[in-house]
UniProtKB/TrEMBL annotation:
Its cofactor is pyridoxal 5'-phosphate. Keywords: Amino-acid biosynthesis, Aminotransferase, Branched-chain amino acid biosynthesis, Pyridoxal phosphate, Transferase. One of its GO terms (biological process) is L-valine biosynthetic process. The modification N6-(pyridoxal phosphate)lysine is found at K199. The keyword Transferase applies. Its EC number is 2.6.1.42. Pathway: Amino-acid biosynthesis; L-leucine biosynthesis; L-leucine from 3-methyl-2-oxobutanoate: step 4/4; Amino-acid biosynthesis; L-isoleucine biosynthesis; L-isoleucine from 2-oxobutanoate: step 4/4; Amino-acid biosynthesis; L-valine biosynthesis; L-valine from pyruvate: step 4/4. Transmembrane segments: none annotated. This is branched-chain-amino-acid transaminase. InterPro entries: Aminotrans_IV, Aminotransferase-like, B_amino_transII, BCAT-like_C, BCAT-like_N, BCAT_family. Belongs to the class-IV pyridoxal-phosphate-dependent aminotransferase family. GO terms for molecular function: branched-chain-amino-acid transaminase activity. It catalyses: L-leucine + 2-oxoglutarate = 4-methyl-2-oxopentanoate + L-glutamate; L-isoleucine + 2-oxoglutarate = (S)-3-methyl-2-oxopentanoate + L-glutamate; L-valine + 2-oxoglutarate = 3-methyl-2-oxobutanoate + L-glutamate.
Length: 365
């Protein structure tokens, strides 16, 4: 598909863009353009359009505004050593968005069109792709239900797919540092048969009360536990988790298994492979809150990290809950552990073209 292009008549000045790229933060600034592709039950996908970034107009009765029929993705484009731009595993994000669409009774955007939309936006807004290694262009594809009407007897018959982009630095404030997390026992994120394993906005809407609780306890983010016993560790508010048992080349990394209630992170799957390449053992498993606490106390668990597109690989230094607090490794004031650092370095190396991409994970945009 070719995309029609309506250029932004008032793009950011070079000075304004440079100021943003000097300290992008996360999700605060957006590039000059966006992509939109509309879908109707009768006509399928319409032509793709590159438009100036700006407000969109919706009927007040649009389904997305009442019933939250919305899905999204998150992936990054990286400036490569040779100056070109490449995205990390965009096909995997396209496929996850299709799974999300099926669960939420929405239209499936074909993988090729998804990747073409990234090319259309990054092509026109290329100057917004920061220099590596700790910065990238965060791409946020999303889809909303646009049919107006308040009945709930059928899913929406029209959708709009949009893509926006935002230069990104560190997700957690204060740079790469061990974060402190809050174990949520009052709230539940997801139960079997629900929407926990897809990326719909409602999962996040329902998480903000726990996020606020975490912040009130001085924590950076919430850790979700299983719905039945509030005992088995699932994932964090914006990323998956990895537990490091032992140290050195013999270290074993365990990430909570996909039970249907946590998001199958693309970073998580990739790290299982990267970890093996680095000589560690990597596996999926079941970790309870007690094993986490006791393992940290005995030294069996040496490091714990969060992993996701936005969070990259972030060490966790302390865990708080209604029962108290325990620390991991050298704690929140430390530097995080060597296995976490090695995983991060190798992953970012592949993403920025500094380490050979033997997996074919990078797609030139
Ligand atoms: N879990 C949640 C709840 C997330 O929002 C994300 C981020 O997308 C992840 C896990 C990690 O997924 P990925 O590695 O594909 O970014
Ligand atoms: C991502 O890492 O892409 C996410 O979606 C996290 C986001 C909810 C901030």
């Amino acid at each position: 598909m070719t995309f029609s292009v309506a250029r932004n008549p008032q793009p950011a000045s070079d000075a304004d863009r440079e100021a943003v790229l000097a300290a992008p933060g996360f999700g605060k600034h957006f590039t000059d353009h966006m992509v939109r592709i509309d879908w109707t039950v009768d006509g399928g996908w319409d032509e793709g359009r590159v438009l100036p970034y700006g407000p969109i107009s919706l009927e007040p009765a649009s389904a997305v505004l009442h019933y939250g029929q919305e899905i999204f993705e998150g992936l990054k484009a990286y400036r490569q050593v040779d100056g070109s731009v490449a995205a990390f595993r965009p096909e995997a994000n396209a496929e996850r968005m299709q799974r999300s669409a099926r669960r939420m009774a929405m239209a499936e955007l074909p993988t090729e069109l998804f990747v073409e939309s990234l090319r259309a936006l990054v092509g026109i807004d290329e100057q917004w792709v920061p220099q590596p290694v700790d910065q990238s262009l965060y791409l946020r594809p999303f889809m909303i239900a646009t049919q107006d009407g308040l009945g709930v007897n059928a899913p929406s018959s029209s959708f709009a797919y949009l893509l926006i982009a935002s230069p990104a630095g560190d997700y957690f404030s204060g740079g790469v540092r061990p974060v402190t997390v809050w174990l949520s026992t009052e709230y539940t994120r997801a139960a079997p048969g629900g929407t926990g394993e897809v990326k719909c906005g409602g999962n996040y809407a329902a998480s903000f009360a726990a996020t606020a609780e975490a912040a009130a306890h001085g924590c950076d983010q919430v850790v979700w536990l299983d719905a039945f016993e509030h005992r088995w560790v699932e994932e964090m508010g914006s990323n998956n988790l990895g537990f490091v048992f032992g140290s050195g080349p013999g270290a074993r990394i365990v990430t909570p298994a996909l039970t249907g209630t946590l998001l199958p992170g693309i970073t998580r799957t990739s790290l299982l492979e990267v970890a093996t390449e680095l000589g560690y053992t990597a596996e999926e498993g079941k970790i309870s809150v007690e094993e986490w606490r006791d393992g940290c106390a005995s030294g069996a668990i040496t490091e714990v990290f969060g992993c996701g597109t936005a969070a990259v690989v972030t060490p966790i230094g302390a865990v708080r809950s209604a029962d108290g607090e325990f620390t991991i490794g050298d704690g929140p004031a430390g530097a995080g552990g060597p296995v976490t650092a090695a995983l991060r370095e190798r992953l970012v190396g592949i993403q920025t073209g500094r380490v050979e991409d033997t997996h074919g994970w990078m797609t030139r945009l």
